[in-house]
Amino acid sequence: MEKWTVANKKADFNAWSEQFHISPVLARIIRNRDVLTTEEVEAFLHGELSDCPSSFLLKDMDRAVVSIQQAISEHIAIRVIGDYDVDGICASYILTKGLRLLGAQVSTVIPHRVHDGYGLSNSLIEQASAEGVGMIVTCDNGIAAAAQIELANSLGISVVVTDHHEVPFEASEDAVNGRRQILPPALAVVDPKRDDCEYPFPEICGGLVAFKCIQALNSQMTQKLPDAVIEELLEFAALATVCDVMPLKGENRIIVKEGLKRMRHSANLGLEALMRMHQIEPERLNTYHLGFVIGPCLNATGRLDTAYRSLELLFSENHVEAMSCARELKELNDSRKNLTQIGVEEAEKYILEHGIQNDTVMLIYCPGVHESLAGIVASRLKEKYYRPVFVLTKGEEGVKGSGRSIEGYHMYEKMCEVSGLFTKFGGHAMAAGLSTKEEDIELLRKALNQKANLSEEDFVERVQIDVPMPLGYADLTLAEQLTLLEPYGVGNPKPLFAEKNVLFISGRKLGANQNVGKYQVQTLDGKRGNIMYFGNLEKFDAYLDEKFGEGSAAALYRGQGQYELALTYQLGINEFRGNVELQYVMQNYQ
Prior knowledge:
β16 (497-510) and β17 (516-522) form a beta hairpin. The chain is α/β, with parallel strands linked by helices. The chain has a five-stranded parallel beta sheet, with helices on both faces. The protein has helices at residues 13-20, 24-32, 38-46, 61-73, 86-101, 122-130, 146-154, 206-220, 227-243, 250-263, 269-277, 287-304, 308-314, 319-354, 374-385, 411-416, 441-450, 476-482, 537-548, 552-557, and strands at residues 3-6, 78-81, 106-109, 135-139, 158-162, 169-171, 179-181, 188-190, 362-365, 389-394, 399-404, 424-427, 431-436, 462-465, 467-468, 497-510, 516-522, 528-533, 563-576, 579-589. It is globular. It contains 20 helices and 20 strands. α9 (227-243) packs across α12 (287-304). The N and C termini lie close together (9 Å). Among the domains are: 3-9 and 462-589, CATH 2.40.50; 55-225, inorganic pyrophosphatase (n-terminal core); 355-459, Diaminopimelate Epimerase, Chain A, domain 1, CATH 3.10.310.
């Protein structure tokens, strides 16, 4: 059972309401997003690109710019080495296009997920050396590649790291928090997670770090990039921010808001083709489309083939080429969906056969699952069981895997505590990747569980309600005002309201698959209305039968329901054939 809590952060909501001409309800929601002062409210509602911090506040950005400038002026061959996920693809595109137009002799390599693995590898360094590369610029990787960068240095290749992942560390009694960060021996290491980096908003993705690198470099060049190029690169920083699940607060919120504006009129033929392929109306483009439609298509190439295909899409020079690439990416993603479902079923079978459904940290070994799908399968199981999940697969060399976490379990830090059981690992608080030996799987499972330090309360999913508010209080004016809070995402979720004692009277199932519910409900004041539900209908029906007796769900769909529930809901605006109406959407029920 979920634990519902009401956000109870204090502020003078009426004063905010008057000053910013918004509803007190909207003011309360903004405060719930950790906004404290009137200056922060102004930035939340009306923040602009000019409000973003200077790129040069990132530690080593000045050194990175000088080093790259020198390489350009001396005609040294530069190689961008990225990553095969959306963030890495976008970062690679940003750096490659920006550097090329600034006069660099630049090539791009994105590691193959299966053959190369994540980030820099010895083989990629040796390949660069053989091909006459004099400088490597990493993006979305490199912070944990000290050994590989030492190899590059020994071969006469200088390296500039741009990354956003956690910095590796070692125990040290003399250092803050008892640990000292280990930086790779590069010319410059640009990573907002450095302890000595004073950048005011460290939770930015690799794509945005790359964008800020191009911004900084451009500011120091005599021949500047055209504004249209900067605008286009901003689109991909926004796409990367959403797809890498960065918190949509502060700078990230501004980048995504402004990036979406530009994507709706994008000059990038590849991006336009993906929108057309999925019949997305540009004016309606939002973070959902980025995170769940466009992003997965770009990701699919790196999972099942090579991420170069995504780069080719973004660099498309005509509509025919762009549509051909977009069609191929969509087909790959459709295939990925089918393989993911098979992977989830195999993982569920492993859980039952090994009796690990009650483990604090679930470690699942599925040799038959494509290693590129481990993270997606782990994410699905994390949502179902609400506990940290690692899914391991059999790679070309040993065992590889991905993990997905819950609040309260910093996955990367916990992995550091058992680092001796990995041959390679890295990640964030909420996600990680790893390699290990097959014979160490059981040792790893036991070690992760012993070090987990989680209580039963940590396994209860929390639902935070913004405002307890009767359905009848909401109106179209409020729903329209809520659009001021967009874009929505992690750190800025769509507002959630709640009401108790809502009577469900009747219902019907809609859609080709009968997977959408529409219910007539009555509130305590006697008012009736309709509410939609897009969640798991089978689970909702089973809940009704359990709570009110067998056959209750069937009775509701016959129009014979009298079932009182507490519910949380969101407000939406439904536009159909020129008509605009308020729409209530149920999210949770008890």
